[in-house]
Amino acid sequence: PIWMESLDEIVKASRRARALVQQILAFGRRQVSSRGVMSLAPVVQETIRLLRATLPTGIRLKVSCAPEAPTVLADPMQFEQVLLNLCSNAAHAIQQHGASTGVIEIRLEPYDPSDIARAPAPESLRYGEIGPGLHARITVRDDGSGMDTATLMRIFEPFFTTKPVGLGTGLGLSVVLGIVQQHQGAIEVCSQPGQGTSFRSEEH
What is the pLDDT of the chain when averaged over all its residues? Predict the structure, then answer.
């Protein structure tokens, strides 16, 4: 029925408005933080539930949460915002690649910075450093358009966006970086044109 379609559009618009307000608050550092020791797996699952209702039908989510991933001291709402922003950008990159279908992979796993075999790729950019010990790592990877070096160097700048007018505020990734830094975490991004993009965030 027509009224159901209208209701669905209202719900989507409300979610977009909620996300924008959270981004503005986070960017201005006025978002109230409520941290506690927790597993990030429920945050991932709740984010997936929200994403399935908003992502284009041709985009498939591939999710993996390792049970051995350690607990972290974090604000669940802020990390939900991190995942929503990264996945929204990933979906846009897939569509920008000219594809009607694509895959966004979300992975939660343990990470030890002393593990040389899992060191950052040479072509990646990394923001922040983490101490020794076991950390939780969240990876968001897409098979979209990827980015050249010039774009990659600017993605965390406030109000910088590659999206068409009306489709992006340029706040999403600067909010992501701000939240990760507030949690004394680190974020690494690796991307090449036509090869997709991978974001990795480590928290303790």
Answer: 84
